[in-house]
Amino acid sequence: MTAEPLRILILGAHPDDADIKAGGTAAKWSAMGHVVRLVSLTDGGAGHQSERGPELARRRRAEAEAAAAIIGASSEVGGVPDGTLDDGIESRHRVIRLIRSFRPDLILTHRPTDDHPDHRFAGLLVQDAAYLLTVPAICPDSPHLAASPVVLDFSDAFRKPCRFEPHVTVDIGREFDEAAIVGDVAAHGGPTGRISNHPINAATSFVMPGTRGRFRPCRASSRPSARALARPNSEPLGSAGIRD
Ligand SMILES: [Zn+2]
User: How far is the CA of 45 from the centre of ligand 1 (A)?
Assistant: First the structure.
């Protein structure tokens, strides 16, 4: 056991995905001393009904940075035009280099079955990259990882081809009542107004295949393996249930 904090990468397709899906959990982890990074693969330039292009992308980048600062995380917004993410080799290699440069113990991202193509490809890119992160011959300009990180899925409401089944949940009710998450909503709800009504106030949940039990927070001072984040917990899910 070491005092080294965990490195947690929350990777979304758009500049608000990481904090919408895991902002409360990110704030909780950050407060524990873990190193959290929020990433968007696209520039967010198509994420508004009446505005678009570089000006919207700049605004959404600023919003993502503001939200990350409130959460206590670092922020990275990629340059892929919103709505055009694909699962080609170039994209896969970009994600491999991105993950290797941060060296995460844990990655949270979209399910590869999400209806939105950017979300779906983000999940698929992480899934495909995860297998290759430890292979030296792949992207040799980027030092390979000694071990693959644990990958968890964001919760979602999609039912086909399979309904999301949470195996790991994190109650963020307290964080939502505090400035971090209220500020997070304000950071995004101001300029674009996209998530001001988003029900992130219940719980953030993830699923890790093969894992049973609920999330039990860990302390940075006693760094467990990333898989230990999901050890069984007898606490109930909470009256608010799971939303996304
Ligand atoms: Zn999105």
Answer: 11
- Residues 104-133 pLDDT 10s: 999 999 999 999 999 999 999 999 999 899
Examine residue 49 and state whether it is found in any structural domain, yes or no.
Answer: yes
CATH of the domain at 134: 3.40.50.10320
CA 46–ligand 1 middle distance (angstroms):
10
Ligand 1 center–CA 14 separation, angstroms: 4
pTM for this prediction: 0.77
Domain count for the chain, please give it. 1
Residue 153: in which H helix or E strand, if any?
A: strand 150-154
| Residues spanned by the domain of 209 | 7-230
Q: Which residues of 8-26 are buried (b: 16+ CB within 10 A; e: fewer)?
A: bbbbbbbbbbbbbbbbbbb
